[in-house]
Design goal:
By secondary structure, this protein is of the alpha+beta class. The protein is built from 4 helices and 6 strands. The chain has a single domain, classed as Hotdog Thioesterase (Thiol Ester Dehydrase, Chain A). This is Thioesterase domain-containing protein.
Amino acid sequence: MSPTELTALLHREIPLAAAIGLRVENLSEHGLQVSGPFAANQNLHGTLFAGSIYCFATLASWTLVHALCQEAGLAAAVVLQEGNIRYLKPITDQPQALANMPEPAAKARFLQMLRERGKGRLSVEATLTQNGEPAAVFIGQFVAVREHES
């Protein structure tokens, strides 16, 4: 799926993505990058709202897992099982999150379990930066359950 198609999917399936102005910028061998407008996501201190930071990181990671399933030809429902975030410094400009591509072995295990058992788990790390340095680091454990064709 293209970044435009992934953005449309997010806006359709997860309305919050549209409300915060999230858009998929790029999907590559490094991961999936999303961005959005600062003005719609700032808090009263003139920095990015912590809830928006969490949303950008979570949605980038969820979209990456969804795209991996689609790329493998596996229709699956993807959900966040557990998510943890560390806020390292304030963000005062446009939010950009990069969900890092999992290591090849972890990705292969996830897809194999999804194919063979109908369920797979995958850990994804996402980072938001400020002036090129990490400002927030998210680690999410995602579960994908294969959807049966009818």
